[in-house]
Amino acid sequence: MATEADFTYDEATFEITDKILKAFKEQGYIILRGLFNPEELKKIKSVLEETDLVPKHGYGIPDATGRMPKMVLWRAPGTDVTGMVCRCEKVVTTSEKLLGGEVYHYSTKLMMKEPLIGGRQEWHQDYGYWYQNGLLFPDALSVFVAIDRCNKANGCLQVLPGSHKVGRIEHKSVAGQTGADLERVEHLKKVFPLTYMEMEPGDALFFHSNVLHASDANNSSNRRWALIMAYNRKSNNPLESLAPPFPRYTPLEKVPNSAILDCTNLTDFSGKEFLDPTADKTVKADTSNRSEQATKA
């Protein structure tokens, strides 16, 4: 369902207008439909599906019922196709315009909800996590790119539009995840209308780090994978003592959008700095299904 924060991306004509900036300021997010075209998406999927990226570096994060969404997280873009996605103009420049300043790559993660077993993501703000990693201000955002169709049946993202205006909410451990104070969330649902972010493959949701969001378990027969890139403003460099294992400011070299299709590196993931989940103080990961060859890269 289209909203005032819902826009269509056209490579030839797209620019960040006052209307888009206003939508992000008021709603806390914008959707860019078709940010990645079918050819780009096919190449991205080939890397995610046909390499050792997932079996070598993937792990689960249990929800309150014991079911697990699975993920792979890296802290540096790298030089493979997914690195070009993290660094391309249409993602990075859009993020800079929305946040009002230079950004750097904070992290990228592949979130995987497998058919019938993929768990839910509890209500949270990204800043609820990142505050613990030394970010002084919520001057950061995430870019959720649908790899598969995302709908209510397979656990699409849910957001409370405008909830970024309430500031940071206290977070605590919920099973293996870090979740927002649920009593406060229930009250905020009466103020901000819960909205389901149903998306087609290639659509992208840019959302502020204080927007409350969650997703249900995948009870359908269809997979729900998404690539989520996070960017922090240069001016918001984390406190050095709290930042690890996440990065402090590192200049990000942008590449043209054409770099995604031009990139020939599909399998070399060196330099991506994959997260060892045991070092992340905001989650309690389950690594029992990881490949025996999984190592910290």
UniProtKB/TrEMBL annotation:
InterPro entries reported in the protein's UniProt record: Phytyl_CoA_dOase-like (IPR008775)
Region (Disordered): 273-297
Cofactor(s), by name: Fe cation
Upper classification of the organism: Eukaryota, Metazoa, Spiralia, Lophotrochozoa, Mollusca
SUPFAM superfamilies per the UniProt record, alphabetical: Clavaminate synthase-like
PANTHER family for this protein: PHYTANOYL-COA DIOXYGENASE DOMAIN CONTAINING 1, PHYTANOYL-COA HYDROXYLASE
Pfam families: PhyH (PF05721)
Source domain of life: Eukaryota
Name recorded for this polypeptide: Ectoine hydroxylase
